[in-house]
Amino acid sequence: MTMPEQDDRIDAYLWDPAAPPAADVQDFERMLEPLRFEPAKAALVWPVPAVAGHSRRRWVYSLAAAAALVLAAGSLAAAWRWSWPAGRAWTITNAAPAVPGRLAVGSALTLAGSERASVRIARIGTMRVEGDARLTLQSTQGTRHRVNLDRGTVRVRVWAPPGSVVFRTPSGEVIDVGCEFDLTAEAARSVVRVRSGWVQLDNGIAEVLVPAGAMSEMRANRAPGVPVFENAAPGFLVAVRDLEDEQGATGAEAVNTIVTLARPRDVLTLLMLVERRAPGSAEIASRAAELWPPPDGVTANGVARGDRDGLWRWRDTLPLPPPKGWIRNWRDALPDWLIGRE
Fold first, then answer.
1. pLDDT at 4
2. For every residue of the chain, which 3-state class applies, written as one string?
């Protein structure tokens, strides 16, 4: 029987521990013995290699969980803001000592001269009242609040679903669409200036939506005025109101002033005049097309002849925020001190 070579003995021992050991292998074993793994003392845990897809999925799950928490917190906060008990009085602050600290349903807040007062509109907003003012809280509950403003000026900031707050004036109703606006009520008319979002005016004859940066006025005996941006050229607003009132300048003079001074931003006003079939509608529509071309399939002549669908398609191309996009104005939900409002 042939004796195995030294290398064969080593291989045999390594693969078959019953084989005769080699001295050098035994020496090597003794050197490694301190590193021997003892299963009874420490369990063997195999590391799981990081997989790019697994890591991405983990981040996606984490972000989804965080988004769900934020959504839940936001929903709870909104539910709390909009859950005002029926008939609970509003709080009045920053007022003269003679002014009560609460505005109860059916009671009136009356100010004279330069007096001012701040009122919390349930939990959804604030209102600053100033001047020779008189207002009455008619009803309050959840997201439905109604105020009569007989006279005076209020600056209102509301963050809530459209129609949550309605002011009744001698000229008609002023309805918030999730916004900030100034409202001045007089015996003959009401004037609205919108700071953010939209406001709707409705006096039973017609209604009009007024976007941020624009103003309108309302009287009891005619349709509310079309919106006019406050930074329009001098004379533009006067000409628009003269054309609506059919007084002051003649119709031809007013139309000439309007088409001469109009800017691309004023196309909203031009289209609303055309919708009302104001004198000079054909000329006004033609000027609107020069400043802001209508979409395909819509023509200035067709709109001037009464293409209402085309007019609204044209209007929808203007760079205006969506009328019901009150959530976009989330800054209106922040306290005054946080965003530096007056």
1. 46
2. CCCCCHHHHHHHHHHCCCCCCCHHHHHHHHHHHHHCCCCCCCCCCCCCCCCHHHHHHHHHHHHHHHHHHHHHHHHHHHHHHCCCCCCCCEEEECCCCCCCCEECCCCEEEECCCCEEEEEECCCEEEEEEEEEEEEEEEEECCEEEEEEEEEEEEEEECCCCCCEEEEECCEEEEECCCEEEEEECCCCEEEEEEECEEEEECCCCEEEEECCEEEEECCCCCCCCCEECCCCCCHHHHHHHHHHCCCCCHHHHHHHHHHHCCHHHHHHHHHHHHCCCCCHHHHHHHHHHHCCCCCCCCHHHHHCCCHHHHHHHHCCCCCCCCCCHHHHHHHHCCHHHHCCC
